[in-house]
User: What shape does this take?
Amino acid sequence: MKKLLLVGIAAFFLTGSTAEDTTPYSEDYLMDFACTVTYTDCSGLQLPHIGVTQLNWAGSGVAGMYFPGTDIILIDIDFLRGLPELELTSILVHEMAHYIYDQTRGAHTACETEAFAWHVGNSFLVSVGLEDATIYDWYEWYNCAAPGPVVAE
Assistant: This one.
C-alpha cells in the first residue's frame, strides 16, 4: 500500500480535516514526478524518510530540509500550519529533488542542487495550475547565476 502524502497526514492532525480534504499525491507519485521532470533514472532509489518537526528557523524562510548523504527530509511544522496543501506538496517534492540529486549525481554545489530542486518544485506548481505560486528568481537568494534549462546527464 502506498504511503499517504505527509502533508495530508499532518493537515489531518493539525486541523482535524477529513481524508477528503487531503491531496491525492502519494510520496511515490512525487518521487516519480521529480525523476521524470529531471530526466533522472531513479530505479535504484528508495523513498526518503520524511518527518515533521519544529525546525526553529523562524524568519529564515526555510520550510524543509534534506540532509545530504542521508535519506532524511524534515518539513517544518510551522509551514504546515500556514500554507495551502498543494504549495506544501511543492516543498516536499523540492526536498525530494535534493535527495534525488544527492543520491544520483554525487558531489555538487549549492547552486547546482538548488537549480535542480527549484525546477522540480516550480514544475509541480505549474502542473497543478498554481503558476502564480512559482518562484523563478530563487537564485538571487543563493547568490547563484541564473540557471539554464535542466537537461539529462
